[in-house]
């Protein structure tokens, strides 16, 4: 497992400490350099300071929510414009429209936490990182993600 | 005897002489004839009257007189038949046309003188008299009115045809009877003729003649006394004027008037009832309108306010008297979210009045949600309906019902927030349980002994069920709250089925199940909601896999059904007991055998499935036999109902 090559940096922004810990522990074991933040404000600061290769971003958080942080990040730096973001969601009523809007406009993806195994989460992170250079590819993945949205045992919500 | 006979002859001759002397001075024609009907003598008046000479008469048979002109059949009967039998003839009228002197009406009286066997025949020439009388009679007869002559004693002495008709009694029977017998009021009749005797004349005396068949003739009598030359009253001549027709006309008129009166009364009563009904209905309508919690406004065809209810006054702050006759669109301006006013012609009310909206009496146009402006310029979110008022297929106005939905929206929001909270807050802990148990099972943080691993697997599986249950419950809550939105699009049914089967593959492989697909080629694409369609097949197929024992067969058939498809999912599983089949689609219900096989099932899968199918306008049916298998038949994509939303928003 121990390799000396460049460790890819992952920022996890999640207010639930238990979920945060699961992700941080797992990604650390998977040889990522993991940064963590408990809300959007912390997340934005960490991101701008450490410039992670990918951000796992929860949507509903206190102080600053995921979409706000994402918007600010995209505006604040040229790096921030391009960094791939995977929105972590539980597809609640309030989140669905946000998610829809975000994936329409931004190079971002999302996954439904409760329906995804940890193995699949890591797989998705690796996939996005491998394809982050090509926008075309990103679009394809975006479509895959959208298909996932349909496939997973969940249904579309109003508004 | 001979001497006696001689004496008799002398007496006879003497008597005859006397008689001759007598008859000569009488002003009547007399004939004396013997028993052989030969004329013994006649008076001068006879000869004058009948223009016969004495020489041609005496000693001649009476019938031979005047060159046999006197051979009158009636006279023959009188003299040869009646005289020998009765010896007398009284007032017998003989009407005879003589060749020389013309028609004569003769009143014949005759008497046989006993012992002498002579017959004295008195003949009165009543021709003139009779003709006058006949003239009068014909006048009388010609009169249709009942005419009658009455004696001083009140007996009928003569009648005309009119009287016969009116009474139904023949002339013979009428004559000699009491005048008063033929009236409905005999006393009044008697009083009547007494009055005539007393006054000499009575006019328009009303009486009613009763026909023997009961028919009544209403008459007015004009009567006067008639006298002889000396002025002695002989009787009454009474003429009745039949006023039955007039009376009946009058009665009819009266009746008509009464009938009309009754009709008018009835009509009035009906109208009064109608008015009462209308008033009641009006009162009822008013009560209904007033008691309606929603603001209600009635406008005429020009859109001018005719009526508003209490709720309207409360909701908008306008009093009815302030808005009556004003244009509704001006009274209540409407604007959208951003505050721009909705133009008049875009107002549904205007469109309904203009007949632009399907204007049938039953149709109501549902208003889009707009903000309505109150009198005090504040606004609120309103929803409502507009119905045209149609009379004789003309729109004469409209009714608009408006409701403040601010509160509803708040509740709606709260409801959504709860669903959001439930889904988010409950899912978060299951997420950590899911991930941590997964990492433990994968021994990422150290090896576990067999038991530890098994326990962790239990935790993981339990959590998985919790996630599934939560998803199902959320789905149910969305169905029940009506927050499902059906979003129809082209969907590929075999594609969806394949994806679901892929998810179920581990289980299918484990149980060595065979999957048969029998698809019609022409039904690959239908219009349906992809997400919901997926849920349907996830449930049906996972059930089939779950409840079919090892080496079982699952057959999926797709056939065309109208514009949609019929999909059958047939398995060789445990089946559904007959007594459970009816309740199978109800919430939380689980078939008794399924409960034994899988105690952890939620009982929500088929409820959700059916709810979704119904919402999409489809159908689902079950055919099943316990221990042999089940077949679920679903039809979807068959209706325009696809664009339907469970809740209108």
Provide the succession of SSEs of chain A: EHEHEHHEHEHH
Return the CATH class of the largest domain in chain B: Alpha Beta
Low-confidence stretches of chain B: 640-649
Q: Determine and state the CATH class of chain A.
A: Alpha Beta
Strand count, sense and closure of the main sheet of chain A?
5 strands, parallel
In terms of DSSP E residues, the strand content of chain B is: 25-35%
CATH superfamily label of chain A: Response regulator
Quick one: CATH superfamily of the largest domain in chain B? Histidine kinase-like ATPase, C-terminal domain
Helix percentage of chain B = 40-55%
Q: Ends of chain A: how far apart?
A: 45 Å
Strand content bin of chain A:
15-25%
Average pLDDT rating of chain A: 76
- Total strand segments of chain B: 24
Q: Roughly how many Å apart are the termini of chain B?
A: 156 Å
**Average pLDDT of chain B, to the nearest integer?**
81
Any idea what the shape of chain A is? globular
CATH hierarchy: architecture of chain A? 3-Layer(aba) Sandwich
Domains of chain B (count): 5
Can you summarize this structure?
The complex is a heterodimer of chains A (159) and B (649). Chain A is of the alpha/beta class. Chain A contains seven helices and five strands, in the order E-H-E-H-E-H-H-E-H-E-H-H.
């Amino acid at each position: 497992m121990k390799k000396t090559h460049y460790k890819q940096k992952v920022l996890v922004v999640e207010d639930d400490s238990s979920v945060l810990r699961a992700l941080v522990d797992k990604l650390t074991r998977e040889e990522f350099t993991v940064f963590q933040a408990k809300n959007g404000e912390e997340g934005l600061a960490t991101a701008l300071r450490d410039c992670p290769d990918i951000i796992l971003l929860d949507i509903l958080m206190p102080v600053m929510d995921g979409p706000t942080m994402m918007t600010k990040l995209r505006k604040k730096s040229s790096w921030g414009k391009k960094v791939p973001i995977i929105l972590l969601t539980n597809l609640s009523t309030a989140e669905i429209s946000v998610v829809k809007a975000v994936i329409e406009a931004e190079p971002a993806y999302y996954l439904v936490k409760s329906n995804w195994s940890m193995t699949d989460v890591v797989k998705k992170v690796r996939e996005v990182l491998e394809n982050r250079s090509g926008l075309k590819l990103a679009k394809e993945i975006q479509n895959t993600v959208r298909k996932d949205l349909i496939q997973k045992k969940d249904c579309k919500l109003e508004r | 005897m001979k001497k006696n006979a001689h004496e008799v002859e002398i007496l006879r001759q003497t008597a005859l002489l006397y008689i001759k002397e007598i008859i000569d001075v009488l002003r009547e024609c007399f004939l004396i004839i013997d028993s052989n009907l030969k004329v013994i003598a006649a008076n001068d008046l006879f000869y004058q009257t009948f223009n016969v000479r004495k020489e041609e008469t005496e000693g001649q048979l009476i019938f031979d007189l005047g060159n046999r002109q006197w051979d009158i059949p009636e006279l023959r009967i009188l003299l040869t038949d009646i005289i020998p039998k009765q010896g007398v003839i009284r007032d017998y009228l003989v009407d005879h046309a003589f060749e020389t002197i013309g028609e004569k009406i003769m009143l014949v009286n005759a008497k046989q003188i006993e012992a002498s066997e002579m017959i004295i025949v008195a003949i009165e020439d009543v021709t003139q008299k009779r003709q006058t009388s006949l003239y009068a009679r014909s006048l009388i007869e010609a009169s249709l009115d009942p005419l009658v002559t009455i004696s001083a004693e009140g007996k009928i002495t003569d009648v005309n045809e009119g009287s016969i008709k009116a009474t139904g009694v023949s002339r013979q029977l009428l004559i000699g009877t009491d005048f008063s017998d033929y009236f409905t009021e005999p006393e009044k009749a008697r009083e009547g003729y007494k009055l005539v005797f007393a006054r000499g004349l009575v006019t328009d005396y009303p009486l009613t003649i009763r026909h023997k068949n009961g028919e009544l003739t209403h008459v007015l009598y004009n009567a006067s006394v008639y006298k002889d030359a000396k002025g002695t009253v002989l009787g009454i001549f009474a003429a009745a004027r039949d006023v039955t027709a007039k009376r009946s006309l009058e009665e009819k008129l009266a009746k008509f008037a009464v009938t009309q009166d009754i009709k008018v009364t009835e009509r009035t009563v009906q109208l009064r009832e109608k008015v009462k009904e209308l008033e009641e209905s009006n009162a009822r309508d008013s009560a209904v309108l007033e008691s309606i919690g929603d603001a209600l406004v009635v406008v005429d065809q020009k859109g001018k306010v005719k009526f508003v209810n209490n709720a309207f006054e409360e909701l908008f702050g306008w009093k009815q008297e302030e808005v009556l006759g004003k244009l509704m669109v001006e009274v209540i301006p409407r604007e959208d979210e951003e505050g721009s006013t909705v133009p008049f012609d875009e107002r549904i009310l205007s469109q309904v009045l203009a007949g632009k909206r399907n204007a049938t009496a039953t149709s109501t146009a549902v208003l889009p949600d707009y903000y309505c402006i109150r009198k005090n310029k504040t606004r609120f979110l309103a929803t409502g309906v507009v119905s045209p008022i149609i009379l004789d297929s003309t729109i004469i106005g409209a009714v608009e019902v408006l409701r403040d939905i601010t509160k509803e929206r708040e509740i709606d929001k709260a409801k959504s927030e709860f669903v959001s909270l439930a889904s988010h807050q409950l899912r978060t802990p299951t997420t950590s349980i899911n991930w941590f148990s997964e990492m433990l099972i994968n021994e990422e943080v150290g090896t576990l002994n067999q038991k530890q691993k098994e326990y962790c697997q239990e935790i993981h599986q339990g959590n998985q069920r919790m996630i599934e249950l939560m998803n199902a419950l959320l789905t149910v809550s969305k169905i029940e709250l009506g927050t499902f939105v059906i979003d129809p699009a082209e969907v590929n049914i075999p594609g969806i089925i394949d994806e679901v089967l892929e998810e179920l593959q581990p289980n299918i492989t484990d149980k060595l199940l065979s999957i048969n697909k029998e698809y019609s080629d022409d039904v690959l694409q239908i219009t349906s909601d992809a997400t919901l369609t997926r849920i349907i097949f996830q449930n049906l197929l996972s059930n089939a896999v779950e409840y079919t024992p090892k080496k079982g067969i699952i057959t999926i058939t797709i056939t065309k059904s109208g514009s949609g498809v019929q999909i059958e999912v047939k398995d060789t599983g445990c089946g559904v007991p007959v007594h459970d089949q009816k309740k199978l689609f109800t919430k939380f219900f689980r078939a008794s055998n399924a409960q034994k096989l899988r105690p952890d099932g939620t009982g929500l899968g088929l409820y959700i499935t059916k709810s979704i199918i119904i919402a999409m306008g489809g159908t689902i049916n079950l055919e099943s036999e316990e221990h042999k298998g089940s077949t679920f038949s679903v039809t979807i994509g068959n209706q325009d109902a696809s664009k339907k939303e469970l809740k209108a928003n």
